[in-house]
Amino acid sequence: MRIQNATDPDLAAVAALIGDPSRAAIMVALMDGRALPAGELARRAGISPQTASAHLDRLFRGKLLAVEVQGRHHYFRLHDERVARLVEAMAAIAPPPTVRTPAQRDAARTLRFARTCYGHLAGALGVALTGAIRERGYLNEADAAFVVTAAGDRWFRNFGIDLDALRGQRRPLTRRCLDWSERRHHLAGALGVAIASRCFDNGWIARVRDSRAVRLTDRGREAMRREFALKIDNLSISSPN
Amino acid sequence: MRIQNATDPDLAAVAALIGDPSRAAIMVALMDGRALPAGELARRAGISPQTASAHLDRLFRGKLLAVEVQGRHHYFRLHDERVARLVEAMAAIAPPPTVRTPAQRDAARTLRFARTCYGHLAGALGVALTGAIRERGYLNEADAAFVVTAAGDRWFRNFGIDLDALRGQRRPLTRRCLDWSERRHHLAGALGVAIASRCFDNGWIARVRDSRAVRLTDRGREAMRREFALKIDNLSISSPN
DNA sequence: ATGTCATTTCGACGCGCGTCGAAATAATTC
DNA sequence: GAATTATTTCGACGCGCGTCGAAATGACAT
Description:
By secondary structure, chain A is α+β, with helices and mostly antiparallel strands.
């Protein structure tokens, strides 16, 4: 059928935008919430700048991306949190990556270990950290949400997070995000972003260049053991239970 | 690019399935969680049975749909709750329906007023009912989730809902679902489905044939006023505040 | 058995769209 | 002003895929 039924939202319009492999690669590259210039996105998607330009224009007009022009650079990012959630939901049921080369295997491992997802920590480290925080009684999982406990309230403040400021934001303090590589939930929302920020500030984690992946620094490894009883060896994590 | 990067899930594979208007129409028709036969889905999507057959096969192999064969009928439904959430997330940012004919306008109104969404109530009625339940102190919105209060615990039991049985299920007791027509959250999850069921059983609401839409019966209108202080006139709802 | 109904398979058509080369525009640098 | 870099516009190519007609398969009824 050509014309849509006109009683329901036009799902196909949105889905078709992400349904092209090149555009999907662009969305994935922006999944961590940062803004990237058009040329960089072309490189990541493995297409020419002209082709990327056309794709970015369509994604922008479809309201999936926002653009910020700085001189001759055009920085694109996911339009809003609803788009991020759509990408999350899609990643949760999409076919897992199929490794082809040894280099890809390493890259995939690094990405599964730790990465950022719309500003918060994801991957094995994100899930483990969420688990450790829950184990220590700072966070409860009630129904389909994470709730900060009284003990958590004190601990997060001591960790340098201003919970009151976070609660004042429009976005929720906590959110569950389904981790596509671990197939379990990790902590997202304003608190998740604040925790990731503190980890960056403390020098516990650092971005891997040209990637959404994050690596644990030596100081970070030590901190994870000290603060959360997480023993991390290379890319494998073991917790006490 | 032809080959995917192989470090990330294959978003395009999933998105391309929903990216075709006919397949999107099929997904929308199944959005309420019921199972429909192939022929009916062809009719709803406005395509021939052969074409629908090909589409349904692709959606099935892509794990977006599940199929149940009963004699010569093939009943299709959304594969699981993750798919339902993907469709929800997509509907929340998809272009709203554009009305073309007077008949479509009526159908759109009916659908916006009340419908089922993976088993629970959605539309203006779903949002209003959720609001009323919160107003009466049976439900709290904490962080990004709904929590049943002690008063709610009593009231839901009195309403004929076995909360303990619902808590034992794998799916969450409560869930927020973003209503695409109201652009606000309504109550979903096991409790949301149970409430809708009670409303059907009580004869308060009834399905509109050949549609996901739901209409309020006379008894239902009376009950909404009596139980929830919701004054409903034709398709417009007014609450005390 | 025969006819009907639901669904699938096969084959062929046609168009939409992702692709890149070439060139234009625009901002930055020297 | 000239050279470099980032991005866009235009044009043309080619292939993937959604479409339906025709026919086959399979289940049910009488």
